[in-house]
Write a structure and sequence with these properties.
The structure holds 2 protein chains of 2 kinds. Chain A contains no helices and 11 strands. Chain A has strands spanning 5-7, 10-13, 19-24, 31-37, 44-50, 53-57, 64-68, 74-78, 87-94, 105-106, 110-114. The N and C termini of chain A lie far apart (37 Å). In chain A, the strands form 2 sheets. In chain A, strands 2, 4, 5, 6, 9, 10 and 11 form a 7-stranded mixed beta sheet that branches. Chain A has a 4-stranded antiparallel beta sheet with strand order 1-3-8-7, with no helix packed on it. Chain B is mainly beta. In chain B, strands 1-3-8-7-6 form a 5-stranded antiparallel beta sheet, with no helix packed on it. Chain B has a 5-stranded mixed beta sheet with strand order 2-12-9-4-5, with no helix packed on it. A two-stranded antiparallel ribbon of chain B has the order 10-11. Chain B starts with a strand and ends with a strand. Chain B contains no helices and 12 strands. Classes of the chains: A mainly beta, B mainly beta. Chains A and B meet through strand 4, strand 5 and strand 10 of A and strand 4, strand 5 and strand 11 of B.
Chain lengths: 115, 110
């Protein structure tokens, strides 16, 4: 079975631009979460979506937004990019999604560099 | 919000020795305690997890213990091997929203 897949793997953008990152969860997983990992730190929670609805949001500015599609895939959008947005963006899925105790399975991430 | 403290931040052990990493958390409502291993340049991988109604769990060379009264949990790795070298994270909270600490860089010396 395929794991969580993310695209693109690497991305270079300029300050002020906008970026869209994509994630496909493990088949059967209905919950998708997004995390930001800055070099040398642990992942920081951005969003959680379940059944196409936002179920949780971390301490990130409104420049960050996300959505989940009927097939449970998800997109993370970041507007007006800042240098500090440079990080590894991780997507994680879980099943059955509504359970508090479902393990998170991470994708390989998208490495975003803002210049 | 949840505050997770993990220590030590770096740990070096000789191959074959044991390694222990400890984490403390602040939110008494936290009920799920996974441990993730992240090798350089790779994604975090779940290696073991424990629920709040369980005090200890083992999986081969890895064990996790939970003390809810003291709000801390520990990862124990026995008979360490070079491939155990990685950063280990102890996020807490629920699977809906995990709060990660700063991680422990474990180095197993051959």
């Amino acid at each position: 079975d395929a794991g969580v897949t993310q695209s693109p793997t690497h991305l270079i953008k300029t300050r002020g631009q906008q970026v869209t990152l994509r994630c496909s969860p493990i088949s059967g997983h209905k919950s998708v979460s997004w995390y930001q990992q800055v070099l040398g730190q642990g992942p920081q929670f951005i969003f959680q979506y379940y059944e196409k609805e936002e179920r949780g949001r971390g301490n990130f500015p409104d420049r960050f937004s996300a959505r989940q599609f009927p097939n449970y895939s998800s997109e993370l959008n970041v507007n007006a990019l800042l240098l500090g947005d440079s990080a590894l963006y991780l997507c994680a899925s879980s099943s059955p999604g509504s359970s508090y105790n479902s393990p998170l399975h991470f994708g390989n991430g998208t490495r975003l560099t803002v210049t | 919000g949840e505050n997770v403290e993990q220590h030590p931040s770096t740990l070096s052990v000789q191959e074959g020795d044991s390694a222990v990493i400890k984490c403390t958390y602040s939110d008494s409502a936290s009920n799920y305690f996974p441990w993730y291993k992240q090798e350089l340049g790779k994604r975090p991988q779940l290696i073991i997890d424990i629920r709040s109604n369980v005090g200890e769990k083992k999986d081969q060379r890895i064990a996790v213990t939970l003390n809810k009264t003291a709000k801390h949990f520990s990862l124990h790795i026995t008979e360490t091997q070079p491939e155990d070298s990685a950063v280990y994270f102890c996020p807490s909270g629920s699977a809906r929203q995990l709060t990660f600490g700063s991680g422990t860089q474990l180095t197993v010396l051959p």
